[in-house]
Write a structure and sequence with these properties.
- The chain is α/β, with parallel strands linked by helices.
- It has 16 helices and 13 strands.
- It has two domains: about 200 residues, Glycogen Phosphorylase B (Rossmann fold), CATH 3.40.50; about 150 residues, Glycogen Phosphorylase B (Rossmann fold), CATH 3.40.50.
- The protein has a seven-stranded parallel beta sheet with strand order 3-2-1-4-5-6-7, with helices on both faces.
- Helix 1 crosses helix 7, helix 3 crosses helix 4 and helix 4 runs parallel beside helix 5.
- The longest helix is centred in the last third of the chain and has 22 residues.
- The chain is globular.
- The protein binds uridine-diphosphate-N-acetylglucosamine.
Length: about 375
């Protein structure tokens, strides 16, 4: 029997990273076999099931069903449940792959590292240098205890070297999320109504958890809505905050089109057709860069700097004057165009499988010898 690699996915942005890796394993028939573990961090059909269906991800082999909670609570539940899975698995899991920077990522990495099971982090080395972001803590902690660091963004290698990570643990593989995008681009129809529109996605605590900030953003979106349609698929966290802060009426009165969270294909259709995307998502900064669709990011920093230096992204924070000026440039056709970013080419997952195969081979020799 082949050695087992547990692949851990838990939240929406994990699913598009795990899908191409599973497909490449299926195609390439490496010397290991995958076990897909869903932590259940995201459980709503629109944040989870639809991605499995649309991206052709097989049903998880194991579902930990942890659900929502405070950060410590949720992380602890995943840690406990994933440790129990690892201890109970026969034969013993030979390696654990975690992806991205969500609570599921750090919790699963910690459980595996304590059991001395080699940890592979896919999308390692990203740093916003802003420890107010929960994801930054997750990235730092995960990279510190991972044995193999698979890097998606050129700055990631520099960050890891600066932190003293030995060269032997770092591999630049490129961006698996772009594999998913390239694979599905043809099946994502452009939106039929060709009126120019702004696509908005927001869910970061820094933008949506304070009434004052969220109300200011709604006011700004209202000013954009006077010039072009504003389509706003709202994450459950954001929809909940708009309701809690009594801002839903203001959204409707300003003509902002609030819609439910979209499936992968529907969102890709919206993104590729949009005149401009306003977001605080990490993944959307990358996807718009690949598509060369102008992206204004409502954050002060990004852990994906090549989307700014080579891609179509500009950081605007909450500087609405700057954002409005850039929308003028976009509408006048004066905004920058994207250049290619190394390894964002649709073939990253195949490189991942090749590197992981070699790594697990040497890791199992090492385990056998000690
Ligand atoms: C998580 C990730 C974030 C990622 C985002 C994408 C962490 C720290 N954050 O943030 O990096 O960009 O996912 O969506 O891991 N909820 C539902 N249904 C669900 C899951 C959540 O309604 O299936 C609601 C719950 O009210 C929950 C809230 O959304 O409390 C937040 O969910 P949570 O997973 O804690 O964080 P996200 O904001 O989704």
């Amino acid at each position: 029997m082949k050695p087992l690699l547990a692949l851990v996915a838990g939240a929406r942005p994990n699913f598009m990273k795990i899908a191409p890796v599973l497909r490449a394993i299926d195609d390439m028939k490496p010397g290991f076999a995958p076990v897909l573990v869903h932590t259940g961090q995201h459980y709503s059909p629109e944040l989870s099931d639809i991605f499995f269906t649309q991206l052709g991800i097989p049903a998880p082999d194991v579902h930990l069903e942890v659900g929502s909670g405070l950060h410590g609570e949720q992380t602890a539940r995943i840690l406990e449940a994933f440790e129990a899975f690892l201890l109970g698995s026969s034969p013993r899991v030979a390696g654990v792959m975690v992806v991205g920077d969500v609570n599921s990522t750090v919790a699963a990495a910690l459980a595996a590292a304590k059991l001395r099971i080699p940890v592979i982090h896919l999308e390692a080395g990203l740093r916003s240098f802003d420890r107010r972001m929960p994801e930054e803590i997750n990235r730092l902690a995960t990279d510190a205890i991972s044995d193999l660091l698979l890097v998606s963004e050129p700055a990631g290698e520099t960050n890891l070297r600066n932190e003293g990570v030995p060269e032997s643990r770092i591999r630049y593989v490129g961006n698996v999320m772009i594999d998913t995008l390239a694979h599905h681009l043809r099946s994502a129809p452009a939106v039929a109504n060709r009126d120019p529109f702004a696509l908005v996605t927001l869910h970061r605590p820094s933008n949506v958890d304070s009434r004052e900030t969220l109300a200011a953003i709604v006011g700004f979106l209202g000013r954009i809505a006077q010039r072009l349609r504003v389509v706003f698929p709202a994450h459950p966290r954001t929809a909940g905050k708009l309701r809690e802060f009594g801002l839903l009426e203001s959204v409707a009165a300003r003509g902002i089109e609030l819609i439910p969270p979209q499936g992968y294909i529907e969102n890709l259709g919206l993104m590729r057709t949009a005149t401009v995307v306003l977001t605080d998502s990490g993944g959307i900064q990358e996807e718009t860069s690949y598509l060369s669709v102008p992206c204004l990011t409502l954050r002060e920093n990004t852990e994906r700097p090549s989307t700014v230096s080579a891609g179509s992204n500009t950081l605007v924070g909450l500087d609405f004057g700057k954002a409005a000026g850039l929308i003028d440039d976009i509408l006048a056709g004066r905004y920058k165009k994207s250049q290619a970013i190394p390894g964002w080419d649709g073939c990253a997952a195949r490189r991942v499988v090749t590197v992981v195969n070699g790594f697990l081979e040497s890791a199992s020799c090492f385990t056998a010898a000690t």
